Amino acid sequence: MDPSHTPTPEVKTRKPFSGMRVLLAIAIGSAVGGCVAYFLSVLIANTPAEINPSRARLFFVMIISSGGLAGFSIESMRQLQEETTDEAYRRYNPRRGRRG
Q1: What is the biggest distance separating any 2 CA atoms in the chain, rounded to whole angstroms?
Q2: How far apart are CA 35 and CA 67, in angstroms?
Q3: C-alpha span between 67 and 17 (Å, rounded)
Q4: What is the DSSP-derived secondary structure letter of residue 40?
Q5: What is the DSSP string of 53-95?
Q6: Contact (Cβ atoms closer than 8 angstroms) between residue 16 and residue 70
Q7: Which distant-in-sequence residues (6+ apart) come within 8 Å of 44 by Cβ?
Q8: Could you tell me how far CA 54 lies from the centroid of its own chain?
Q9: What's CA 11's distance to the chain center, in Å?
Q10: What is the reported pLDDT for 78?
Q11: What is the rounded CA–CA span in Å between residue 50 and residue 58?
Q12: Residue-wise pLDDT tens for the chain (100 aa)?
């Protein structure tokens, strides 16, 4: 070993995990889910189908909450992959995302 070589730290502390970014992603995902729920409510209102209002309300809440959950999971995974020390997440892999 070279005595002048200083070892690099194993953990890179560039940016800590940001909870505010995750909350912002939840808000954006919920807003997108709200837009989709509004579109579906207009679509359902202009059809001859009879839907129980409480079931429709639960359906719209489910759509909005799934948008928020999607935003939460995407931003959390993005930050966790950015902070990882494993080089497998950082190297370019030409086969990533392909099947077969």
Answers
A1: 80
A2: 10
A3: 21
A4: H
A5: HHHHHHHHHHHHHHHHHHHHHHHHHHHHHHH---GGGTS--TT
A6: no
A7: 51, 56
A8: 28
A9: 24
A10: 86
A11: 15
A12: 555 655 555 555 567 778 888 899 999 999 999 999 999 999 999 999 888 999 999 999 999 999 999 999 999 888 888 877 777 666 666 666 666 5
Q: Write the single-letter amino acid at 7.
A: P
pLDDT at 85: 74
Quick one: pLDDT at residue 3? 57
pLDDT for residue 17: 77
Placement of tokens 């940016």 in the chain: 15
Q: Which two tokens stand for residue 91?
A: 């190297």
pTM of the model: 0.68
41: buried, middle or exposed (CB in 10 Å: 19+, 13-18, 0-12)?
middle
User: What single DSSP character describes residue 6?
Assistant: P
Residue 82 near residue 15 (C-beta atoms within 8 A): yes
